[in-house]
Amino acid sequence: MPLSSESVRLPRSPGFVSLVGAGPGSPDLLTLRGLRTLQQAEVILYDSLLEPSFAELFPKDAQAIPVGKRCGGLGTPQDHIHHLLLKHARRGRRVVRLKGGDPLLFGRGGEEAQRLEAAGIPFELVPGVSALQGAASASGIPLTHRGASREVRILEGHHLLESDTDWPELARTRATLAIFMGTRTLRQVAQRLLLHGASPDLPVALVEKATCEGQTTTISSLRLAAAGHLCPRTEGPGLVYMGAAIGQRVHPTLPERPLLSEAILHDPGPPLPQPAAQAGPPGGGRRRRAG
Ligand SMILES: C[S@@+](CC[C@H](N)C(=O)[O-])C[C@H]1O[C@@H](n2cnc3c(N)ncnc32)[C@H](O)[C@@H]1O
To answer: Minimum mean pLDDT among 2-11, 92-101, 108-117: which range?
Structure first.
């Protein structure tokens, strides 16, 4: 299909909202359709978590409004985001809601779309590359790999601990687990999995700031994660992967980016290090910087 800008020209009235996936981090991973849609926007409501360089892609005369929250801190209430979407659309404007990753994966894009639909506002969804694939590919981690894993489970860190998770089943699965918003609960999740019979040697990876400057990959094991040794090394978002497929990791030739680094936490083997009484990163585990 030809990709002419004609194919994504948006109606002017009574306003139109595009929920656009911005991709996993780096602006050059925004899709072509996403870029074209963005370039026609009159109002852009963008996630505060997005890389600042996205602003270079915004039309000069567009009204750009940051919304959402950074690193779990206080941010724009979701109801206010809905209010802004409806307000600008009802004024007949072309509105882009630019959301990290894919709009419908842990991004509350579904709620925003439902609100627009209920209000009778025409809208579209422009898919984005999720951090699910972005962080994996950028760090050479296959999500599936013949002989290692044929399934991917997409999970949410807080929810895992708060809901009626079937821990024995999760501990048994051969699926690759991808845990969003899972850095804070990683230690507890790993402890539960061990308790229910998962292998202490199960590979665990933490990919932070994937595809952005400062991307960091830390490879470890379930045993060390349960002992609190696998801690974030940046202030950026992080995605946790667990599963045998991580052991099949490759090392792509990455473009030179300052601070791009990876670390491997070497497992000293049994006995399991005793967690401190108060949770907190002991900063343990021997680290080897590989790049
Ligand atoms: C609210 S969710 C949004 C997910 C997004 N809709 C997607 O499809 O990737 C935010 C979480 O996604 C993960 N994430 C997003 N961008 C990331 C990145 N560049 N590197 C690592 N993890 C990322 C982190 O787990 C973060 O806490």
So the answer is: 2-11
Domain 132-275+283-289 sits in CATH at: 3.30.950.10
Question: Active-site residue 209, yes or no?
Answer: no
Mutate which of 20, 184, 239 for ligand 1 pocket (most atoms within 8 A of beta carbon): 239
Q: What is the DSSP string of 196-255?
A: TT--TT-EEEEEESTTSTT-EEEEEEHHHHHTT-----SSS-EEEEESGGGGG-----PP
**69 has catalytic annotation:** yes
Chain region(s) in the chain for CATH 3.40.1010.10? 13-129
Q: Report whether 239 contacts 215 (CB < 8 A).
A: no
Question: Per residue in 23-74, pLDDT tens?
Answer: 999 999 999 999 999 999 999 999 988 999 999 999 999 999 999 865 455 6
16-27 exposure pattern, b = at least 16 Cβ within 10 A, e = fewer: bbbbbbbbbbbb
Q: What is the pLDDT of residues 131-141, one digit of tens each?
A: 999 999 999 99
Which residues lie closer than 8 Å to 283 by C-beta, 6 or more apart?
231
**From-to residues of CATH 3.30.950.10 in the chain:** 132-275+283-289
Residue 136 phi/psi, 5° resolution? -70, -55
| Ligand 1 lined by 219 (C-beta under 6 Å) | no
Domain 13-129 in this protein, CATH class? alpha beta
pTM, rounded to two decimals = 0.86
Is residue 97's pLDDT more than 50? yes
Residue 288 pLDDT more than 80?
no
Q: How far is the CA of 280 from the centre of ligand 1 (A)?
A: 23
What's the rounded Cα separation, in Å, for the pair 44 and 38?
8
